[in-house]
Specification:
30% of the residues lie in helices and 9% in strands. The protein has seven helices and 15 strands. The strands form seven sheets. A three-stranded antiparallel β-sheet has the order 5-10-11. It is flat, with a radius of gyration of 46 Å.
């Protein structure tokens, strides 16, 4: 505790704040008195009787805040007015130029901080004097001590409420935050960590550790055990199931896990069967006994249907070639001055396009064979058709309504047919692959288990 009778020369008046005193203006700390001859001398202050001895001196000197601290001179107008203590000036209305923010670490979030003065005291930065007016965020508002997160691209700060981001999610699950202004959906976007696989847990999974063996889809080992317990509980027990022989029970599954853990032959998640190499060649088994009679018939029919679908796609592509050749012939007629840009130019041989059976028959005709052999669409071979060689067999009408936009319409129709046919062929191939995998797993299992069936007479 400071001595209230200490000399005024030992303590600057600007750095002293008296608390619990009722001194009159003439009794200021360290005041100088005159003896009438103009000789000023220092006199220690004698505390009046009504001053509590618990008064203390508090030093307030903060060079970082750069606040002007001064003592108000005593007023001569009102002798009963108390001497005001030193206080901060201008912190509410005056601010210097905002300093540039240093670069932030990843996933940094802005929270309330505290500033400690040199004397050892600390005051919370959430006071009104320490409010940062910004502007920040998409709202261009101040740092009003709500939770904020920094953008990894523009390095601006954003209120969690303004970007619809919860504080817990932002601090635990956001691996890289990108604000709405910088998000482009390609390289810049907010990246989240994968949560724990246990339902209801919002903690990040251990997939981001530096040691590979410590990585897990769970946040801790307890949640891993809880997940397994929940999975096992979904299986029936032998006591509760009437078909315990036909279904997998909890006891069977636990025994399977224990057995495989002891033998270390294979673990849960690996494919136990169906790993035989060289069992298939061109979709057919290289060993006998792999496929049943029904499976062989299915694969044979499916392969033939896929081949037919492939031939259909080939015909559709020839249709597209014929359409392009007809359009090219129209362009040649326009360049020769026989047609204008408003002329139709539809060739009657395009009537078979998009009708597969009719187009297939036309391909077998001499004209069809000659067209695809020459690689262009020439004048029709029908002698009954009249007209010039350049425009024979073409519609010469201008702005023809029946054939309006014939090139785009025919091309669009043929592309749709190709897409549908290719999808049907892919579905058949997928069905064949599923059957081959099932047959391979069954065959390998028979080889490993070495089961046999013996027929007993009578």
């Amino acid at each position: 505790m400071a001595d209230p009778c200490m000399a005024a020369a030992e303590i600057p008046s600007e750095d002293v704040e008296m608390e619990g005193t009722n001194l009159p203006p003439s009794s200021g700390l360290g005041s100088r008195l005159s003896n009438g001859d103009g000789d000023a001398r220092s006199r220690p202050i004698q505390p009046p009787e009504n001053i509590e001895q618990t008064s203390h001196v508090q030093f307030k000197s903060d060079p970082d805040e750069k606040q002007l601290l001064s003592s108000s001179p005593p007023s001569n107008g009102d002798p009963n007015r108390m001497k005001s203590a030193s206080r901060k000036k201008g912190t509410a209305s005056k601010k210097g130029p905002r300093k540039s923010r240093p670069s932030k670490p990843k996933n940094s979030s802005k929270k309330g901080t505290s500033i400690t003065d040199p004397a050892g005291g600390a005051h919370d930065a959430s006071s009104d004097d320490e409010t940062d007016n910004g502007p920040y965020c998409i709202c261009r508002g101040p740092d009003d001590h709500r939770w904020m997160i920094s953008c990894d691209v523009c390095e601006d700060w954003f209120h969690g409420e303004c970007v619809d981001l919860d504080k817990d999610v932002g601090e635990r699950l956001v691996e890289r935050f990108v604000c709405p202004n910088c998000t482009d959906g390609k390289r810049n976007y907010t990246k989240y960590k994968k949560t724990c696989s246990l339902a209801g847990c919002k903690n990040p999974a251990r997939l981001y550790t530096k040691i590979p063996k410590d990585r897990s889809v769970f946040c801790c080992n307890d949640h891993c055990d809880a997940w397994w317990v929940n999975m096992i509980d979904t299986l029936p027990t032998k006591a509760a199931s009437e078909k315990a022989i036909e279904v997998l029970t909890q006891e069977d599954f636990v025994g399977l896990l224990v057995n495989t853990a002891e033998q270390s032959s294979w673990k849960l998640g690996d494919q136990p069967f169906g790993n035989m190499e060289g069992l298939w060649s061109n979709g057919l088994p290289t060993r006998s006994g792999v496929l049943s009679g029904e499976e062989q018939a299915f694969l044979k029919n499916s392969s033939a249907e896929r081949l037919a679908l492939g031939n259909e796609i080939v015909q559709y592509k020839k249709m597209m070639q014929l359409i392009d050749w007809a359009n090219h012939r129209r362009q040649l007629a326009i360049e020769a001055g026989k047609f204008t840009k408003e002329s139709c130019g539809y060739d009657w041989r395009l009537d078979t396009v998009s009708v597969r059976h009719q187009f297939s028959e036309w391909l077998e005709t001499p004209e069809g064979q000659a067209t695809f052999k020459a690689g262009r669409l020439d004048a029709p071979l029908d002698p009954d058709l009249q007209g010039e060689q350049t425009t024979r067999g073409m519609c010469e009408k201008k702005r023809c309504k029946p054939h309006n936009g014939w090139y785009k319409l025919l091309m669009s129709a043929v592309r749709t047919l190709i897409k549908e046919t290719a999808t049907a062929a892919a579905d058949k191939l997928n069905s064949e692959d599923v059957m081959r995998q099932a047959a391979e797993a069954r065959f390998e299992r028979r080889q490993l288990e070495k089961n046999s069936v013996e027929i007993l007479d009578g």
